[in-house]
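Problem 12. The chain below contains 271 residues. Write out its predicted structure in token notation.
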Amino acid sequence: MKIGNREFDVNHKTYIMGILNVTPDSFSDGGKWNQKDAALAHVESMLQDGADIIDVGGESTRPGFAQVDAQEEASRVLPMIEEIRRRFDVPISVDTYKASVAEQAIQAGADLVNDVWGLKYDPDMAGVIAKHDVACCLMHNKANTEYNNFLIDMLAETQECVNIARGAGIKDERIILDPGVGFGKTYEMNLETMNHLELFQHLGFPVLLGTSRKSMIGLTLDLPVDQRVEGTVATSVIGVMKGCAFVRVHDIKENKRAILMTEAILGRNIK
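Solution.
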């Protein structure tokens, strides 16, 4: 799979998407990286630690988050995307579910649109991605936790995202799927999603796992958000074992080492 100018061997490797939240209120690191110099230093640090993609987000998706308008979101992410593109040779993802923000971000240098609503929030989003022929990550999400049969329904609802993408002309080779741990699911459902990640392989697309520092880990280990590294690493190891092509994390070094070790045990090429 090609993202930006880089080829990703999604069938044999697990790559790291490093999180850069340029928000004042993100659940894990809100306010920490919304100053340009600090943010760019953090990007450099993530790349040195082994990040393969940088995901730039301008609106928190934490529980109870305050929605920001597209203009405000764009004002946060666009300068950062432009600076990262200028200074570093790395694929850039924009974490947004708004088509207008995505389009401006692509024009600023983003190579991938990471949509936490899987094209279901903004009817113009799929068309923007298709027009610019960029990669996209489509996450399973819904406004409630009501299912008839959780796993079957979750997969069917994720397939709906794929159908929207195809209907808009997005090429299959541009699509990544995200099971959406922490979104539209109870605590028990999140654990079940982790335990059955391999089912997502049946949909036929690379899978991105995003569990970093999330409440599933906090509830399991009874730990605050700044003490969830080990729990996140455990989910990354499971992700590698169940075929995920990408993990989206805050703590690059720890997850990278665990991924390389897991790949070595599984007999995958670690170079």
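Discussion. The mean pLDDT is 94. Students who got a different answer should revisit the alignment rule from Section 12.3.
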